[in-house]
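Checklist before submission:
- one chain only
- standard amino acids only
- sequence pasted in full

Submission:
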Amino acid sequence: MTTPTTPRIAIVTGAARGIGAGVARRLAADGFAVAVLDLDETACKAVVEGIETAGGRGLAVGVDVADERAVEAAVERIAAQLGEPTVLVNNAGIIRDNLLFKMSVDEWDAVMDVHLRGAFLMTRAVQGYMTKAGWGRIVNLSSTSALGNRGQANYSAAKAGVQGFTKTLALELGKFGVTANAIAPGFIETEMTKATAERMGYSFEDFRAAIVKNIPVGRGGLPADIANAVSFFAGESAGFVSGQVLYVAGGPQA
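Returned file contents:
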């Protein structure tokens, strides 16, 4: 990307580990100052320290993205301490997998709150800075589960909702120089997928092998694979790409 004279400010939610941490590090390497957000501010500090050691600027912020007032306060703090944000990556997410007949209302609501309410609240809080600047990039993390996945009625519905949300943002904000795109990862090797394997009673090696045999490129994805896609969408060169869903899954998706 072409780095502006004054570094632009990016926010990445769910960035203490996994995909979010990888995205935060990549955006910092691209020249952005990065606010690293997660529930636990202390957990974000290692990512920020890595960014600063590499010569970048970062800020650790603890926030529950489903809490309206907390989100507004966090974004105001970022604008005051780091700079007014014009890039937002809505990555925060949780899973509460269960078959439909076993799924509780709490399991449904928890997933909807983080993925959909969280993306809505964060985007609403940040879009004003983008429209004022006449430039902005919103990248929302969806999933191949948006196409349907057994035991994930809540997660699949939320991730499909993220895609509709993204397309609507593209329509509403495009005239202000703001693009909105979604990335739908397939199997990515993170702490979350390792926890899923453990919960299902598999070793991660066996779990990964069973999935990888059905991935055309013959390997699992890494956080860096998603970070590369975010880097493109967040850059100057992606200004004519908006309202799109990019499946980063090692092969075509139905």
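Reviewer check: The mean pLDDT is 96.
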